[in-house]
Write a structure and sequence with these properties.
12 helices, seven-stranded parallel β-sheet, NAD-dependent epimerase/dehydratase family protein, alpha/beta, NAD(P)-bd_dom, 339 residues, single chain, Rossmann fold, UDP-galactose 4-epimerase, domain 1, NAD(P)-bd_dom_sf, two-stranded parallel sheet, globular
Length: 339
């Protein structure tokens, strides 16, 4: 049994990871400020699920990673051995509109955690990074040696975080690894993402809205594969100081994705097109050779099977989830198609 801290553990990826750790018998502490970036009822639902699974092995602490005193207290008082740092101010376009918030959380907050990890002897620090660090495409698929020229403040903060983790490994001997996630999706995902919005609109007889010409392509990664990559880091130390891609290895255009959702929902609709959105990458595609070598990682769920599973989940959870999707759509004129 390992004492694990999951920052951002009330969110989509963090809650799936926390639940899997609890199912494996570990003690999990979640630190999350419950930021209303999207409807808090989703985060409350995520936490309730973790409590049901973990019982006394689960604890939730309402607080921010930018609170230095709180972070040190949590790491020391809970004897934290492994940190899974999933907390972040997500959203490429959100960062363009307000660059200061992602810097404060994604950079300053990360530094606070790394300082605590060093002072209190954390055995492993896993940092959630993003394919947004790549930016401009030199070649595809991206391997970890590809140039990193982020196109948004969000991508810059994620790249900065990777460098801090590398330095903490080299200078302070904190075992760190950064996992570069490629657009993650699945049950309980953020309600303002493309797959969620396509599914919601199609089930209600509305056309999915594609921004741009629809030929931009994405490497969508199913949540179970992301969790598996993270859990493997409890067993290996071969990747200290490394950055590692975690993707599906296969791509789909946004237009193809919309058509697939239409087919899965049996919707009698076509696609509606709108203006392209600023700062979105044109293409993403992960080379996961390194993840296979270091983490024995092999993605198991392709985008078409994953979308089918998500649509089934959406239908089964429509009563509580769909109103939150509607609320998100009302508050954001252009749902994200990336991260």
């Amino acid at each position: 049994m390992t004492n694990v801290l999951v920052t951002g553990g009330a969110g989509f990826i963090g809650s799936h990871l926390a639940a899997s750790l609890l199912e494996a018998g570990h003690t999990v502490t979640v630190l999350d400020p419950l930021d209303p970036y999207y409807d808090l009822r989703i985060k409350t639902h995520n936490l309730e699920r973790c409590r049901e699974i973990g019982g006394d092995c689960f604890q939730f602490i309402d607080g921010s990673i930018t609170d230095e005193e709180l972070v040190h207290s949590v790491v020391s008082s809970h004897d934290i051995e492994v940190v899974y740092h999933q907390a972040a101010q997500a959203g490429v376009r959100t960062s363009v509109e307000n660059p200061k918030k992602p810097h404060e959380i994604n950079t300053t907050g990360l530094l606070t955690l790394l300082l605590a990890a060093d002072e209190h002897g954390v055995h492993r620090f896993v940092n959630a990074s993003s394919s947004s660090v790549y930016g401009e495409v030199e070649y595809l698929p991206y391997d970890e040696d590809h140039q990193t020229v982020p196109r948004s403040p969000y991508g810059v903060t994620k790249l900065t975080g990777e460098h801090y983790c590398r330095l903490w490994n080299e200078i302070y001997d904190v075992p760190t690894v950064s996992l570069r996630y490629f657009t993650v999706y699945g049950p309980r995902m953020r309600p303002n993402m493309a797959i969620t919005n396509f599914t919601s609109r199609c089930l209600n007889g509305d056309p999915p809205i594609v921004y741009g010409d629809g030929q931009q392509s994405r490497d969508f990664t199913y949540i179970d594969d992301i969790v598996d990559a993270n859990l493997s880091l409890l067993e290996t130390s071969d990747c200290d100081g490394e950055v590692v891609n975690v993707g599906s290895t296969r791509t789909i255009t946004i237009e193809e994705l919309a058509n697939h959702v239409i087919a899965e929902t049996n919707a009698a609709v076509g696609i509606e097109y709108a203006d392209a959105r600023e700062a979105d990458a044109r293409h993403t595609h992960a080379d996961v050779t390194k993840a296979g070598e270091l983490l024995d990682y092999e993605p198991t769920t392709g985008i078409r099977d994953g979308v089918s599973q998500f649509v089934d989940w959406y239908r089964s959870n429509r009563e509580w989830y769909e109103p939150l999707v509607f609320a998100s759509r009302a508050g954001e004129s252009s749902p994200s198609q990336t991260s």
